[in-house]
Amino acid sequence: MSRDHDLPQVPSRRLLLKGAAAAGGLTAVPGLAHAASPKAAPYVNPLVPHRADPHIHRHSDGTYYFTATAPEYDRIILRRSRTLGGLTTAAESVIWRKHATGNMGAHIWAPEIHRIGGKWYIYFAAAPAEDVWAIRIWVLENANADPFKGTWVERGQLKTQWETFSLDATTFTHRGTRYLSWAQHEPGMANNTALWLSRMADPWTLTGPQVRLSTPEYDWECIGYKVNEGPSVIARNGRLFMTYSASATDANYCMGLLTIAADADPMNPANWTKSPTPVFTSNDTTKQYGPGHNSFTVAEDGRTDVLLYHARPYKEIVGDPLNDPNRHTRIQTLGWHPDGTPDFGIPVADTAKESV
Question: Which of 161, 159, 179 minimizes the C-alpha distance to 103?
Answer without folding.
Answer: 159
